[in-house]
Design a protein that fits this description.
By secondary structure, the chain is of the alpha+beta class. It has one domain. 42% of the residues lie in helices and 14% in strands. It is built from two helices and three strands; from the N terminus they run H-H-E-E-E. Strand 1 (53-54) and strand 2 form a beta hairpin.
Length: 72
């Protein structure tokens, strides 16, 4: 005799948690994709993009391996 496997339905709370995690993942991917659209070509745009600024004289900002010097 062959026994058939009958899957039990998932509890509603688990379904809600799984759907919430999927939605958060999609929103996070959308947000991170939009962050890559920032054009950095000088010191001011580097700072505006939220990159670190070295406390040196003159100040320097670094973005994706490139450095920009504050000309002011």
């Amino acid at each position: 005799m062959i026994r058939r496997f009958r899957a039990k339905p998932l509890p509603p709370k688990l379904v809600i948690v799984i759907l919430s995690l999927i939605i958060l993942l999609v929103v996070g991917l959308i947000i991170s994709a939009n962050d890559n659209d920032v054009v950095v070509d000088d010191f001011d745009s580097c700072v505006a993009a939220g990159n670190p600024v070295a406390e040196s004289f003159p100040e320097q900002c670094f973005h994706n391996g490139s450095g920009y010097v504050n000309q002011n």
